[in-house]
Amino acid sequence: MDEASVKALTFDVFGTVVDWRSSLIREGEALARAKGITHVDWAAFADAWRGLYQPMLERVRSGERPWTKLDDLHRQSLDRLLGDFRIGGLSEEEVDHLNRAWHRLDPWPDAVAGLTRLKVRYILATLSNGNVALIVNMAKRAGLPWDAVLGAEVAQRYKPQPEAYLRTAELLGLKPAECLMVAAHSGDLVAAAGCGFRTAFVPRPTEHGPRQATATKPERAFDVTAADFVDLARQLGC
To answer: Are residues 51 and 66 in the same domain?
Structure first.
C-alpha cells in the first residue's frame, strides 16, 4: 500500500473502537442495583441484544422493512429481550435510558490515544451502522476525535451494502482508494475492499468476552494488520 495515497481512515465502531459487551454489562448491572433486579445474567443479556443486531439490519437491507435508524432497531430488540429475560416494572424513561446504553459505550484502552495520533496526519471518519446521534453522543462522552460522522444513516444503507462505503468516500471528496477502512471484522473489510477501499485489520480478542470463540486473525490478507490503534498509528508513520 502506498501510504501517501491514503487521505482518510474510516472506522467501524462497534467492537473495533468501543467495547460494546462490557459496556452493556455495566449498564445492566447499574439498572439491576437501582431496581433490585437479581435474576438476570447481564452478560447473556448483552450477548442476546447484540445477537439480534444483524437479523434486524437484514430486514432493512433486504427491503422487508423501510429504512429504520439503529436506535429504533435497538429499541425493538430491547422490548423483546425485556420479555425474554422477565424484566418488568420499568418506566418508559428507564427503558429509553437502557436503550441509549449504546450511546455510552466505553472505548478500548488504546482507542483515544491511537486516534489522536492518527488525526495529526489523516482525516478520521466513522463508517458505522450506528445512527448519527448515537455516534456523536458516544464520541462526546468517550473523547473520540472524529473529523466526520458518516456511514449507514447518511447513506441510508447498512453495511456491507456498497453504498455505505461509496457514499462515505464521496462525502469526504475522496476516491475509495484514498480511504483506509479500519475494522476488527474481516467481513467488513472484504466488503470495503470490494468497493476499492484500502483495508486495515485490528483484532479485538475480547470483543465477545474472555472466552471469545470468534476468529481474531484476519480471514485473508489486508493492506495493514495492527495489534491495536497505537500500533496502527506507528505503522502509518504517526
So the answer is: yes
C-alpha cell at 15: 467492537
Helix H or strand E encompassing 179: strand 179-183
Both 58 and 145 in one domain: the answer is: no
What single letter denotes the amino acid at residue 193? A
Q: Which of 36, 70, 104 is the C-terminal boundary of a domain?
A: 104
Helices (H) and strands (E) in the chain, counts: 11, 8
Indicate which CATH number applies to the domain containing 74: 1.10.150.240
Tell which residue, 120, 105, 135, has the closest CA to residue 27: 105
Q: For 65-107, how does the pLDDT look when each residue is reduced to its tens digit (9 = 90+)?
A: 999 999 999 999 999 999 999 999 999 999 999 999 999 999 9
How confident is the model over 173-230, as pLDDT tens digits?
Answer: 999 999 999 999 999 999 999 999 999 999 999 998 877 655 566 778 899 999 999 9
Query: Distance (Å, rounded) from C-alpha 77 to C-alpha 53?
Result: 8
Same domain assignment for residues 68 and 141: no
Q: Distance between CA 78 and CA 59 in Å, rounded?
A: 16
The alpha-carbon radius of gyration of the chain (Å, integer) is 18
Q: How many CA atoms lie within 13 A of 200 on its CB side?
A: 25
- What are the strands of the beta sheet with 179-183, ordered from one edge? 148-151, 123-128, 8-11, 179-183, 198-201, 224-225
In this structure, the answer to whether residues 213 and 130 fall within a common structural domain is yes
Collapsing DSSP to helix, strand or coil, 217 comes out as: coil
Residues 123, 215, single domain; the answer is: yes
